[in-house]
Amino acid sequence: MADVSRLHRLHNFVSSFRDQFHQSHLTASNWLREKGVELEELRHRSGQALATASLAGTLALTSADQLAAQQLSQQPLNPAERRELAEFTEEEYRTLLDKLSGLVAMPAGHLPSEEEGYLEQQLTDLLGFEVAAELEGNRLNHSIGIMGGEQHLKRFPGDTLAKHDAFQEAGMAPARGAFGWFTQNGELTQQAIEYEKYYLAVQTLYLPNWNTQYPTLKPWYEFRKMLVVNPAEELAIVAVVGDAGPAEWVQKQFGGSPEVIREGKIWTRQAKGRVLVLFINDPQDKVPLGVIDLKDLKPDFN
Amino acid sequence: MKSLVYFLVNQGDFDGGWVFIYYDVVTTTHTPAFYDHLVRWEVIDFLISHFDEAERPTAHQQIVASLDYTVHSVTLHHLPSNSHQTYLQLSMDRHHDTALLDWLEERQPGITDHLTEAIHRTKQSLAEELEIDITSWYT
Description:
The complex is a heterodimer. By secondary structure, chain A is α+β, with helices and mostly antiparallel strands. Chain A has helices at residues 2-24, 26-35, 42-45, 64-73, 79-85, 90-104, 113-127, 190-197, 210-221, 258-263, 294-297; strands spanning 130-132, 134-135, 138-139, 144-149, 199-202, 225-230, 235-244, 254-256, 274-281, 290-293.
């Protein structure tokens, strides 16, 4: 009962704020009423009206040449190319997967410092692209933890669930992601579609330097490419940071889009949501988004 | 705000059976606002952790609403009245955009400090109202 009364007290507390606002700022209050908007709705309705305009003018123009170069650089590496790059033995592969399975079962946090560098190198060798828990001085609060299922995110103002081609049962979040619309120059490009399909929510809002270095950290994390390793299912997923969360009290450290959760088999009986999440150092944007079957990368001794 | 949702889905490609997938973050992803980086969210989470699990989404929504009222109230108090309507219109359209804080700072230098202080005071008032000790967060 104590908790029920606490919630009532919270409701009363917010009501007093609401009343005080309307009394102290009558003109603003009337203006909002004329628009049919409650002040506390602003957070959720923001951005719905303006499709492409940006107050900060942050939408950079990309020339046709730049776009073409970008598309070329996005040609994926196939498993054979990756295998060629990997210098890995069967025994090393099994040792690495067993090691990772044990580590992701530990409480949320980071890889043991004495093993972090070694495991990063092993994964880099296996995958054929560079992964790291810390990149350009940035590190999340957790690299191992539990990943919860997110909903679809709105890619552009007016986006609906019906326009998403898979896993509609997951629903769609009421607002856009913390890093903005997925569209590029107001257009729903193939890359924008891929970004929403394979997005992660990471707890940027709890980073110790977030409040002070927000202006530089937000663009750094926006659509930053990351690797999710699900050792129990021997799968990895290349995804981008598309949202902030989950809240700490949920006791999960990461969120994954419906595609990440389902295609990455994050919540099988074996996996139980336990993952390793690392940055991908991919300045030329060569690593394609999506699922990697680690078994395909195993050395073939036949 | 939506409630916690479970989906019974066919996981044929996993184990050949049906399992529940728990879409809990429906309630917890963060709808951004222009002033979010002024808030110490871990203190908000600490406050929310004192509610029953089923009440937390509502508590989260209510606490965020109290912060919204605080921020808009303080802003309108400090901002020249001839900028109020523009501010409200920008809040309707760009409430998530941190550039809105830059816009405010240009018109009322120092407003960020006022907002930071007001957010802190609101958290303390909330904690007092809810009889939750948050002093350890600030010592």
